[in-house]
Amino acid sequence: AADRPPQWIRIGAVEDPFQRAAELQRGLLERPAHISPKYFYDAQGCALYSAICELVEYYPTRTETAIFERHRDAIARRLPREVQWVDLGCGDGAKSWPWLTSVQARRWVGVDISPEWLSISFTAGARRFPDVEFTGVATDFTRPLDLHAVLEQRPEWPRVFFYPGSSIGNFTPSQALVLLRSVRAHLGRDGRLLIGVDGVKDKAVLEAAYDDAIGVTAAFNRNVLRVVNRELDADFDPRRYTHRACFDGRHSRIEMQLVAQQAHTVHLGGQRRHFEAGEAIVTEYSYKYTRESFSALLQEAGYSHAQHWSDERGWFHVFVAAP
Ligand code: AVJ
Predict the structure, then answer these.
(1) Where does ligand 1 bind, in terms of residues with CB under 6 Å?
(2) Which segments constitute the Histidine-specific methyltransferase SAM-dependent domain (predicted)?
């Protein structure tokens, strides 16, 4: 691939600041107020999320990594070879690199909402794997996924879609179903989906993972108000909000909120919004699945079969699903 320069593709008006501001304003004027978790990830938010992944309480990242390390060969045996490796929400790309060797990848297609992350991962990967073709696609998973044209550039290479870290947990089950179906529509006959999903477990363990003792997750949550201030020309004071994370067993999800400590009025890009003391802004859902509930979702999305791996405690699930 040395003769093929890295490719850069941008789908849609991803970072259209007017669209982002309008979406933020709409959500904050609703009752209850809400902010999509995609707004967490500015430079500071990405750094805080990296710090979260190192916390003793935040088990998902290290549990998934341990499953991947322990079962890498067995998992890879369920995947095709000489593939186009599609990394959904690639971030810094680091989770992909060992797999590129395992499956003799010919091409890496990194997909991320953040052009900054894309160029970081893209540059790191292209240096590390000079014989692999690198393509970066900037898009937002809340819009319909359409990578057909990109993947058709290399019709001879089967596709593996890699969606680790339980990122799927940010979608409601019905939104997740839409995404899983659209991934399936990209797989062709030989393609596979390799996905990591966080498991249902003890409420205290779950809540500690989203409300750590030294307050990193609280800082991550409050940081979204600074993103809002910048993008929407708002005047939230993050110090007036406390972090809350509760596991809602009925919906099988962690719900993260920012709770106003006193009544106050905020300016939101030309509008005003009053918040009562104790009023909450919903900032994130993180859905948790059992082996059975996620297998059922895969089946409902049309996948014909799936293999499963987990850790000793059954805290995290990894699936390879076939179309
Ligand atoms: C990046 C969506 C997988 O839900 O665990 C971590 C984000 N939020 N701590 C998750 C998150 C608070 C994370 N995901």
Answers:
(1) 52, 60, 165-167, 169-170, 210, 217, 284, 286
(2) 22-321
